[in-house]
């Protein structure tokens, strides 16, 4: 498969910690709604910024968990199957994007 297939989401996988990840995402969703309400209700800027920092930290934790799972499962399996170079490059591309 080429990188466009990866980017378009044609590949699927079972997340080993799916329920935990869904719970975290639900909390993040609630935090974002809370920030929306804070802005709507003219809350103090610093309070809003503190909530945004908490959201960023939470999304970073989800990203790191996904990256760890992907590396230890998908990338490791690709290496065993002789497709490690492509899988590593795909991972590095997404890491570069996340670091911007």
Overview of this structure, please?
This protein has 100 residues and is mainly α. The chain is built from four helices and no strands. It has helices at residues 3-7, 18-40, 45-80, 84-99. Helix 2 (18-40) packs antiparallel against helix 3 and helix 3 (45-80) runs antiparallel to helix 4 (84-99). The longest helix has 36 residues, at 45-80. The model is unreliable at 1-8 (pLDDT under 50).
Summarize the structure.
This protein is mainly alpha-helical and 100 residues long. It has helices at residues 3-7, 18-40, 45-80, 84-99.
List keywords for this structure.
4 helices, 80% helix, single chain, disordered N terminus, 100 residues, mainly alpha
Any chance you could write out the topology, listing elements then pairs?
Elements: H1 3-7, H2 18-40, H3 45-80, H4 84-99
Helix pairs in contact: 2-3, 3-4
Ranges where pLDDT stays below 50 over 5 or more residues in a row are: 1-8
Strand content: under 5%
Radius of gyration: 17 Å
Order of helices and strands: HHHH
From the spread of the alpha carbons, the general shape counts as elongated
Number of strands: 0
Structural class: mainly alpha
- Helical stretch tally: 4
Largest sheet: none
Could you tell me how far the N terminus lies from the C terminus, measured between alpha carbons in angstroms? 26 Å
Helix content: over 70%
Q: Compute the average pLDDT.
A: 89
């Amino acid at each position: 498969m080429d990188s466009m297939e990866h980017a378009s989401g044609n590949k699927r996988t079972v997340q080993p910690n799916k329920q935990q990840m869904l719970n975290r995402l639900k909390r993040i969703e609630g935090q974002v709604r809370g920030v929306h309400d804070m802005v709507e209700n003219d809350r103090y800027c610093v309070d809003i910024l503190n909530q945004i920092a908490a959201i960023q930290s939470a999304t970073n934790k989800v990203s790191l968990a996904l990256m760890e799972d992907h590396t230890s499962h998908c990338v490791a399996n690709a290496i065993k199957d002789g497709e490690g170079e492509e899988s590593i490059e795909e991972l590095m591309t997404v890491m570069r994007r996340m670091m911007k």
